Structure formats: C-alpha cells, structure tokens
C-alpha cells in the first residue's frame, strides 16, 4: 500500500534524522521501538495485556458482572411494571362495563349510538351508575376528596355558537366558534333526571364529554414485596358527533396518576431491603465501569496527540482522521452511555420502590435502553476472537455506505408514502393516515400481509383499482427485487473485502503498518519495562 511504504523504511528514516540531531543511532532506535511497543500494548485485548504485564482485565470482569446483575434488575422491575400496566388496563375495562350501557368486550372500538333517545338514556345511565358506584363495584374504587368536598361528575357539551341548518332546502348559516356548557353532579346527593336542566341541540352538537375522578389502591404489589401504590383515575367518556353522520361514537379514556399513599402500614419484610441493596450494587458496578471506561478514553485521546506529534516529527506526515479515530474506542463510549442510563434508571427504581417517585415509563426507558446496550457491548469481547470479529468489522466498515444508500432509498420510499396516502387513503384502511402508510409499505418490503393489502382494493372503482395495482406492483418490484437486493449487495461486498484483508493480513492504515513492525509478542517480557520516558520524547532532536 502506498501510504504504508514510508513506514517500511523506518531504519533508513532514522539514520537520515540522526544527521540532524545529536542523539545516537541506538538511542533514537530505542525511542522509536519503545513508542511502537507502547502503541501495540494500547491496542491489545485484555488477555494479551494480562500476558504482557500481568494486568488484570478489570473492565472485562465488571462488564460480565454487569450483564448478570442488570438483567436480573430489569426482570425484577419488568414484573413490577407489568403489574402496574395490567392494573390500569383492567380498571379501564372495568369503567367501560360500569358506565357504558350494554357494553360487550367484543364491541371494543365500535360502540356507537344512533338515536336521540339512546344518547339521553346513556348519559343518565352514567350519572346514575356514578352516584351508586360504592354499591355496585367489586373493586376498591372511591370518590376523590379535594378541597373539603367530593369532586363532582361534570357533563360538558361542545357545540357551534349559532347555526341554522336546513338539509331539506340545502341551506345553512353557521358560526364556527365553539361554546362549552357544563353541569355538575355531586356524588353524595340524590339524583333525579327530571330535576336536571339538560338538553342537547344535536344539529349544533360536536361532543358530549363526561368527566369523573375515582381513587383506588393497587394491593397486588404487596405479594411481590413492594409497597402498594395509590391511583387517581381521571376518566373521560366521550360522545363524539363531530362528523354529524348520524353515528355518535362513544369511547372511554383513562388517565391515571400514581402517587404515594397518605398513610400506610405494611409489616416489615427483609426482601424490601434486599432489593434496595441489590439496586445499590448495580449503581456501584456501573459507576466503577463508568470511571474505568472514561479513564481509558482519556488515555486514548492523550496517546492520539502523542502519535500525531511523533508521526509528524519523524516522518513529516499528517495522521489521517481515520487513524486518529482508532484511538477513540467507540465501545467505551457505548458502555459509558449504558452506565449513565442504568445509574439514572436504578436511582428512579429505588425512588419508585420507596414511593418517592412514580415515573414508571421513564424508568422503563432508562433501564431497558441501558440493558440493551450492555448486551450489545458483549460483541466487543467476542471480537477479540478472529472467528467472531468478522461481524463487528463488517458492520463498522459498511456503516458509511449503508447510511448513504438508505438516504437515497428514503427519497423513493417517502414519495410512495405521500402518493399512497393521498390517493388510496380514502379507500383503504392501511393508507388512511401517513403513519399507517409508512407501516404498511415497510411490511410489504418484508413480504408481510401482501394478499390482504391487494384484496381490500378489489371492490373499488375501476380507476382506483387500476391505480392501486400499478402502485403496489411497482413498489413491491422496485423495493424487493432492486433496492433490497442492492442493500444486501453493499453488505456482502464489505464482508468480502474484510475477509480478503484478514486472509492476506495486510495492514490497511498508516497506524497499523507502524504497529505491525513491532515483532515483540506479549509473552516476550519486553512490555514489563518502564516506557514512559521514551513516550515523552516526541521530537527527533531530543535525547534521554
């Protein structure tokens, strides 16, 4: 290789430099060899460093420990999070059965009303069920007490301010401004439909929203050695008439707020302290790993500057950017990010267990991402074995080409997305919204649900049917047979290149060519000497 040719003449280069300085040939040669040996030691794997200097692979041992304890921690928190999610979903289903008249599970998403009498009947039914809730429910539901009184149920109408609509004569006069009118029902007072001044103008009506707040306690966590959570459920029952199509859709939405119970007492359980101790061990292990990896990155950056100065002084050449990046270990950066996320997630988990915090979603994201990165980081240590590092080398070498290829393919992909959304959206459920289009087309690329996508367009108009066929056939042919094949070819070409270099064992950069001239093996004992003085001599005219 042309870039490595000057490095193969190291001895002649040293003799040329000796004529311009007072250092002896032996001193200069030893300085270069010591620095070359120092670079080689820096890029050794933990096993080689142990054979060279007896340095124990602390980072490797900590990473193995982290994989075990972080996985156990994630499983423990996952079970707790699963109980919380299940409790919220079960309560939402409970609210549907309690407050929607005649609700059946199989009608989820299709609950609708079509007559005025049904709308009034369902609204009064909700009011009555809310007032008699303590006598109906089998759960631990209760009314919210705030400000010295119970939070009332509110029924709010949203409607156009003024309108005159006459479908028979095809005339209308409408003010698009929206007004809102609410009535409130106290849960501890008697309720009579005839005493309510409640009426609906269906021609102007946009929606009727019923708001109510209920409280409960999740007791199932006690069996898993956790303190129970208290919940506030802010329930909204919406009668949606925005389409004015004669069909009023009814849906129940539930927004839960989790907080620490005001006054609680649970018999002491030593397992609670063991969980806190385990989380503290996880934080300590991650913090230790964070310090060690940060120190390694700092040492690598310092050695990078030394090599850049050394190379410029002795060979009068500028170190390439790719060679300089070799000193910054990306795996250490990944581990640092993982440790930071895990430490933050573990701290949140401790707060959740002690009921100081209730951010389950944030904690899940932190712990989940941290655990994923820890497992991905195992690839670094598998890469020390030549039969396993081919994946890592291929991914690293192919990444720039893959990014450029994906940017070009994305232009075509988004073009099809916008076209399908605007043309097929009114006739096909999978193209109804832009996010559904992107999901549908990505599924088609992977060969999923093709026949069902074609089938739903059979009964449409001839023009739409013809366009859908041209659209789908061209997209599938282009992306499956061409774009996807080219994408695989980019990866395959990089893989073959990496295999060729590994087989020939040829240095591919100035840095690797420089280090390759060091023939000292880790078992030689040459790495046991103190090499720091030689590493500080970065000028061709400096002497010991």
- Computed structural class: alpha+beta
Please state the CA-atom Rg, rounded to the nearest Å.
35 Å
H/I helix tally: 16
C-alpha geometry:
flat
Oligomer: single chain
The helix/strand series, from N terminus to C terminus, equals: HHHHEHHEEEEEEEEEEHHHHHHHHHH
Which percent band covers the strand fraction? 5-15%
Describe the structure.
With 544 residues, the chain is of the alpha+beta class. The protein has helices at 10-18, 25-42, 46-53, 58-99, 116-131, 133-136, 270-315, 321-325, 330-353, 360-382, 390-424, 434-445, 450-455, 462-504, 510-516, 532-536, and strands at residues 112-113, 142-143, 145-146, 149-150, 153-160, 163-166, 171-174, 178-185, 205-218, 229-240, 248-259. Among the domains are: 1-31 and 389-544, no CATH class; 111-266, no CATH class. The chain has 16 helices and 11 strands. The longest helix is centred in the middle third of the chain and has 46 residues, at 270-315. It is flat, with a radius of gyration of 35 Å. Mean pLDDT is 79; it is low at 1-23 and 530-544.
Short summary of the structure?
With 544 residues, the chain is of the alpha+beta class. 56% of the residues lie in helices and 13% in strands.
């Amino acid at each position: 290789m042309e870039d490595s040719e000057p490095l193969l003449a190291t001895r002649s280069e040293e003799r040329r430099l000796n004529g311009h300085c007072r250092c002896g040939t032996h001193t200069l040669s030893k300085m270069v060899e010591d620095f070359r040996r120092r670079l080689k030691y820096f890029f050794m794997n933990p096993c080689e460093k142990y054979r060279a200097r007896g340095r124990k692979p602390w980072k490797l041992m900590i990473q193995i420990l982290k994989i075990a304890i972080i996985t156990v921690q994630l499983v423990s928190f996952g079970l707790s999070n699963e109980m919380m999610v299940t409790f919220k979903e079960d309560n939402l289903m409970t609210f549907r059965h309690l407050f929607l008249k005649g609700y059946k599970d199989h009608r989820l998403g299709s609950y609708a009303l079509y007559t005025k009498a049904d709308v009034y009947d369902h609204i009064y039914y909700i009011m009555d069920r809310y007032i008699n809730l303590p006598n109906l429910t089998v759960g631990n539901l209760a009314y919210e007490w705030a400000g010295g009184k119970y939070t009332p149920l509110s029924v709010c109408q949203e409607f156009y301010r003024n309108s005159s609509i006459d479908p028979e004569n095809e005339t209308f006069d409408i003010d698009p401004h929206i007004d809102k009118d609410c009535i409130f029902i106290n849960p501890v007072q008697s309720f009579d439909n005839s005493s309510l001044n409640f009426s609906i103008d269906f021609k102007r009506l946009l929606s009727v929203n019923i708001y109510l707040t209920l409280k409960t306690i999740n007791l199932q966590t006690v069996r898993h050695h956790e303190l129970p959570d208290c919940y506030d459920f802010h329930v909204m029952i919406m009668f949606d008439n925005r389409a004015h199509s004669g069909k009023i859709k009814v849906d129940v939405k539930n927004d839960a707020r989790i907080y620490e119970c005001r006054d609680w007492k649970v018999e002491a359980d030593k397992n609670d302290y063991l969980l806190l101790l385990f989380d503290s061990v996880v934080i300590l292990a991650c913090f230790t790993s964070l310090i060690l990896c940060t120190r390694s990155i700092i040492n690598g950056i310092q050695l990078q500057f030394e090599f850049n100065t050394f190379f410029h002084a002795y060979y009068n050449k500028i170190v390439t950017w790719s060679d300089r990046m070799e000193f910054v270990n990306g795996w250490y950066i990944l581990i640092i990010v993982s440790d930071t996320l895990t430490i933050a997630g573990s701290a949140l988990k401790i707060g959740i267990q002690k009921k100081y915090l209730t951010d389950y979603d944030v904690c899940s994201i932190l712990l989940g991402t941290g655990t994923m990165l820890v497992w991905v980081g195992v690839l670094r240590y598998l890469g020390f074995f030549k039969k396993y590092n081919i994946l890592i080398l291929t991914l690293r070498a192919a990444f720039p080409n893959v990014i450029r290829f994906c940017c070009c393919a994305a232009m075509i992909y988004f073009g099809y997305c916008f076209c399908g959304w605007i043309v097929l959206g009114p006739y096909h459920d999978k193209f109804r919204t832009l996010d559904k289009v992107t999901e549908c087309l990505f599924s088609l690329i992977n060969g999923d649900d093709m026949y069902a996508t074609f089938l739903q367009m059979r009964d449409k108009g001839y023009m739409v049917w013809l366009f859908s066929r041209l659209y789908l056939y061209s997209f599938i042919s282009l992306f499956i047979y061409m774009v996807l094949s080219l994408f695989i070819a980019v990866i395959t070409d990089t893989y073959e290149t990496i295999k060729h270099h590994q087989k020939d064992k040829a240095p591919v950069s100035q840095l690797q060519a420089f280090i390759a001239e060091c023939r000292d093996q880790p078992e030689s004992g040459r790495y046991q000497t103190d090499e720091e003085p030689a590493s500080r001599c970065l000028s061709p005219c400096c002497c010991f």
